[in-house]
């Protein structure tokens, strides 16, 4: 009996279009309805964001601070609306700043990625985009050149809007994934977007283990830890339940002065994650800190880490918005490149305590 010949491999897979050079995250887009959009906008403004503008024809608002742009999309009959109906208030799109968006899209096509083309209104700019494995979108935005920006063309921008805080850029985002989907996400980012993957690490949650593998662009301006857990009550499992699937559950913003930023956030009423005082007793045993500095860390709920090269990380977390996603404010010093793995156990324990308190209050 004659054998079937194996299918020919498309030649383009051996010579795909070159990957783009990345220059960070251009914007994050949240799918919201009117109510959640107003509340999330309030949260962000307490974090120092300014309301920069309103879309010319859609129920879409733009907030910003430093190099950070956040879009809140409540437009009916849109991709964001469908995403909201499926997952609730959540990050539905990430826009990456690249040197050639159309070349990036051709590379995605070569690796059998799924390009997406939404409805584009009059005088709006069409941005190349591709679907991520969970159906969310990744926009591929050309780095700013001559002419108006994507915000000038699509939004009525308020020239008087000024951010109140000192947050600078999106340092990283973290995703909660079903345990059996990690490999497909790693393959997607490595092949289509030419990201690199760090080694997997195992992190302790009070209710089980969390496995994490961080992805990053080759220039490290875009960083995305992917988290999975096979235990039912971990923070990752709660995120998956809230989203009814995968979702970004953690967004980190960088700054130059952690204490100034957290002081301003506390004064504005940002709900910060409460860190137990015994954590700071442990810090005193690990590092040669004076009492005044330790007291300042404890007062602001700031976590601290130091690497073998002397790099330092100062970071603080907000409570979760609607029990779903939370924000991190961080400051890196002396070339620190990690994510504060030494602090993950205390952070996850503090989050578990906050969830339990919220659950008890909800039953009252």
Mean pLDDT: 93
CATH superfamily of the largest domain, please?
2,3-Dihydroxybiphenyl 1,2-Dioxygenase, domain 1
Counting DSSP E segments of at least 2 residues, the number of strands comes to 17
CATH architecture of the largest domain: Roll
CATH topology of the largest domain: 2,3-Dihydroxybiphenyl 1,2-Dioxygenase, domain 1
How many angstroms does the end-to-end distance come to?
A: 73 Å
Largest sheet: 9 strands, mixed
Can you describe this structure?
The chain folds into two domains: 146 residues, 2,3-Dihydroxybiphenyl 1,2-Dioxygenase, domain 1; 195 residues, 2,3-Dihydroxybiphenyl 1,2-Dioxygenase, domain 1. Strands 9, 10, 11, 12, 13, 14, 15, 16 and 17 form a nine-stranded mixed β-sheet that branches. The protein starts with 21 loop residues before the first strand and ends with a helix. The protein is globular and about 60 Å long. Helices cover 29% and strands 29% of the residues. The longest helix has 20 residues. The model has no long low-confidence stretch (mean pLDDT 93). It is of the alpha+beta class and 364 residues long.
Write a concise synopsis of the structure shown.
This protein is of the alpha+beta class and 364 residues long.
């Amino acid at each position: 009996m004659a054998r079937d010949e194996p299918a020919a491999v498309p030649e383009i897979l051996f010579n795909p279009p070159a990957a783009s050079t990345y220059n960070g995250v251009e914007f994050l887009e949240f799918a919201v309805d009117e109510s959640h959009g107003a509340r999330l906008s309030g949260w962000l403004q307490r974090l120092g964001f300014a309301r920069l503008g309103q879309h010319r024809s859609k129920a879409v608002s733009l907030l910003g601070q430093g190099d950070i742009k956040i879009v809140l999309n409540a437009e009916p009959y849109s991709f964001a609306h469908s995403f909201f109906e499926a997952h609730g208030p959540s990050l539905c799109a990430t826009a990456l700043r690249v040197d050639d968006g159309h070349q990036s899209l051709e590379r995605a096509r070569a690796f059998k990625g799924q390009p997406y083309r939404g409805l584009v209104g009059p005088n709006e700019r069409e941005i190349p985009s591709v679907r991520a494995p969970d159906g969310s979108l990744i926009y591929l935005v050309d780095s700013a050149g001559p002419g108006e920006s994507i915000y000038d063309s699509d939004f009525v921008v308020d020239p008087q809007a000024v951010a109140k805080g000192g947050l600078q850029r999106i340092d990283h985002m973290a995703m909660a994934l079903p345990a059996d989907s990690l490999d497909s996400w790693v393959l997607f980012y490595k092949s289509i977007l030419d990201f690199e993957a760090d080694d997997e690490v195992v992190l302790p949650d009070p209710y089980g283990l969390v496995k994490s593998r961080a992805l990053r662009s080759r220039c490290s301006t875009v960083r995305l830890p992917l988290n999975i857990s096979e235990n039912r009550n971990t923070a990752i499992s709660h995120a998956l339940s809230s989203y009814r699937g995968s979702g970004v559950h953690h967004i980190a913003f960088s700054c130059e002065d952690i204490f100034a930023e957290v002081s301003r956030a506390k004064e504005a009423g940002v709900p910060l994650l409460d860190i137990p005082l015994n954590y700071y007793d442990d810090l005193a045993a690990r590092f040669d800190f004076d009492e005044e500095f330790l007291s300042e860390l404890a007062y602001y709920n700031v976590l601290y880490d130091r690497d073998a090269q002397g790099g330092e990380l100062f970071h603080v977390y907000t409570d979760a918005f609607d029990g779903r996603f939370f924000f991190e404010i961080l400051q890196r010093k002396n070339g620190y490149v990690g994510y504060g793995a030494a602090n993950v156990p205390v952070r996850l324990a503090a989050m578990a305590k906050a969830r339990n308190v919220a659950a008890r209050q909800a039953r009252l």
